[in-house]
Amino acid sequence: MAAIKHRRTALERVEKFISDVYFTDCNLRGRLFGDRCPPASLSYFQTPRRIPYEEAVVQEFGPAQVGQSFGPTWETCWFKVELSIPPAWAGREVHFVWESDGEGMVWRDAQPVQGLTKEGEKTSYILTRSLKESEPHSLTLYVELACNGLFGAGKGSMIAPPDPDRRVTLSKAELVVFNRDVYELLVDLEILLDMAQLLGEENQRSFQALYTANQMVNVCDVTDPSTFPAAHELAAAIFSQRNGESQHTIHAMGHCHIDSAWLWPYEETIRKCARSWVTVVHLMEHNPELTFACSQAQQFEWVRSCYPGLYARIQDFVAKGQFIPVGGTWVEMDGNLPSGESMVRQFLQGQRFFQEQFGRLCSEFWLPDTFGYSAQLPQLMRGCGIQRFLTQKLSWNLVNSFPHHTFFWEGIDGSQVLTHFPPGDSYGMHGRVEEILKTVKNNKDKGRVNHSAFLFGFGDGGGGPTQKMLDRMKRMSNTDGLPRVQISTPDQLFSVLEKESSQLCTWVGELFLELHNGTYTTQAQIKKGNRECERILHDVEVLSSLAVAQDRGFRYPASQLQQLWRLLLLNQFHDVLPGSCIQLVVEDALQYYTEIRRAGAQLQEEAVQSLCRDLLQPNAWSTPSTLVLNTLSWERTEVISRPGPEGTETLALVTVPSMGYALVQEPLVPPQPVAVRKQEDGSITMENGVIAVCLDTMGHLTSLQLLDSGRESIPDGCYANQFALFDDVPLYWDAWDVMDYHLETRKPVTTLLKPLEITLAGGLRGSVRFSLQVGKSSTLTQEIILDAACPYLRFLTQVEWKEAHKFLKVEFPVQVRSTNATYEIQFGHLQRPTHWNTSWDWARFEVWVHKWLDLSEHGFGVALLNDCKYGASAHRNVLSLSLLRAPKSPDSTADIGHHQFTYAVMPHQGSFQEAGVIQQAYNLNFPLHVVPASCAQCPAWSAFSVSSPAIVLESVKQAGAGVEEGRAEGLRCCCWAGLAFTHTQGGQAQLSTAACAGEAVPVSPVCTPPKAEDRAEGLVVRLYEAHGSTVTAWLQTSLPIKEAMLCDLLERPATEGHLPLEPQGLRLSFTPFRVLSVLLLRSC
Ligand SMILES: [Zn+2]
Asked: Of residues 369, 445, 460, 471, which has the active-site annotation?
């Protein structure tokens, strides 16, 4: 009989035939499951803690029932499930079905075997594909049920703060017979139906698919499985009609984006990893073609230590090339706020972990879900052996559509990486027709490349791929009318993109996300913890390195530093440092910072004690004095506060050499003391011979003069240091977003609580103080400080913040005209426009910055420095620093409470480079260390100095430091000092040939340790060109060095990287923003 002619009735007929809502009494979907049988027994116990299996199973279990609810939120229920499979089910596929709104894990024989999450379409554990008589029919399973969903427990909406009283219901726990032939037909029909609907009436394949599906319904008698093969044949026939050669190829890879903490705490993430990955491993056992790209070394480390059995299975699949570690970083970090050195450590810790555990480095950076990407990343990737980058987050841009999916991305130094955004704009595909059609249609580089990535699997809260996703894509592998879909790997995809890359375009500069700009400011304590702990670890490393060089007995705290770095790096995860997490996560993050501060202070003290032992130990000739240490690479003259008798503090002006120390007994006399004067109108002037300022009673800066030139920085009639409050109600993503329209709600803060008064009358330091009422219930107290010889004015600010949906900023209108402002980023800076000409310009109404931003015209400018803020803007001639927000989701308590932060304003002659703005911003962030000493005289000592002000010596650390202690020597040697050894035919160890630009090199897991005497002698010194200039500089050191060589960021020596030791030091050549690492071996 001829096929029916009415398109709509045919479509809906097929829909109803596979519907799980309608006609399930007589349709195919209703036949998916056969007989059912309840568990022989079901019992449970509940605990507020996340406990290991061994501890759980020895608890007392009480009776439980299907239909029962459990909770509250974050509790865990362990269920003991006794099953008895009816013998009559011989030959049938038997599933254990478990449905609840919590996240479950099935344990069998003390091992995790299957994650169960309804939201992730995982509700079955397959007990047998075909029940044999010899198989055990009775068995005991345990189900560990977390009382939270895949996306936490938001009350009312996903990102609302968690409902503390949420309960999860167990809606199903039973044995069922699974009819796989029905399942296969359902997948066939679903694909055909999608093709019929989505290919459109102009495409004949749409009708071919529809009529085939309709014919299948005709052929199928749902009560008679013997009719199913004929129907399946019809589907197979149409799926096997092939494409032409020009068809687009989709590289499908299993993936599971797991936020390391977000709407759930870190601890739950450990279980999410296990639930998701055990499911992947289980799928791989039955689908040898399945590949799975998996990022974040930290998550591997969690599973390694908490689920060793699962980890061993993962290692097997890594070896087979199916389970593929990607990314190379410790976590998928925020792409904007971590310092340059932090970003290096993300890669160093990550790549070393992958090298140690799996014998290979990752060759692609993987960061699909981060809120923007620093223009320094291409250089850092290349320095870590990575030339490929995958993300997709820019598809979230609110204003401008990014013009490419495959392109070369060029950073501020000129480094390029091949970058790919999966054109389907997602990292959580389900293998549906709609998604693969979108991938082709949406691709902005049609004609340039014909391959693209397709990441499938539930994500964010974990979950990962399902069998159904795989089965869908198998049918679409090469079907006329649809793109080719092949299961692939990141390496296969990028290799073919590299071959096709001749036509690709290049994007220069940052990948700015035009959304989530509130994340530069939200959760100010996390931002402050990050900046402060970056400084602490920097200082501990510098001082410990110097101590090692000076004191043979001092042991570099490698493993403690590794542990502290890993805590800091973990907190840089892309929902933690940005502040887009729930309160539980904030508490954990702040706890980690507390730990870094505590342990860091102790390590620093130990290093200083060792470095300066002779100066600090009292003896018969001791005289009280002060030791001042400088961890930065230039000489500094600053006012310090030193402890005097009986707990008093005295000020002193001191000069301390670069990366070294000086002993202070007689402080310097300032060239000009600070003068502070109160005027008749209540305003106060302060000057120090460098700058002169005038402040009104409200704390406004009404004048800021550079005395040398007499140049005024503040325009006539304008107030700088003006606080302004904005309404801050975004469209949805509360903690994330500040919208452009907030700028229309500006209200200057004008309520004075305490007028300006003098707190320090001058001399070495002058200061004034005032208090303001901010909004309805917040207060702000500020001390404005001018030090002798200091080129900037410092604003030490305390805020009691009790607002809701308000945004506090401080503004500095300046007498400077420029169409671009300059912002510090990782190891460099970049310009962004001060106007809103185009949509690309005004979409950057709120941007991120590190320690300083600057607005300069020829010969003069004003810089704004800060010690823990990241949000800023420069519109026309107004520099603004974003101080505090008050979002309510996902943490209703975000930022409520006490805050302390410092910013500073620095007018300057010449360019910001010539004026030393960069160094001053470092000085503000890295205070001199002041230690009471007991020695009268000692020459000042400098370990390192650099001849050019364009070069910043950023880090000094022990090479290879951070290798876990107690590991086999054979493993240790692979990473030690980053020396990658490979065996030659003669069995001789040989240095690998890593170029300093970071060309990817194959690194063999087989290696020979470096010679014992080299082991504890290596230091890595990292420098960068900060001015944006080509320059040759000398690195001088007073440490005994026998050998020096350039190395990459993974500390692998560069080919021909050997540096001659010359009388002036080491000669280093830099191009703009170039980062160089030098490996120094100490002479014995
Ligand atoms: Zn994410």
From this structure: 369
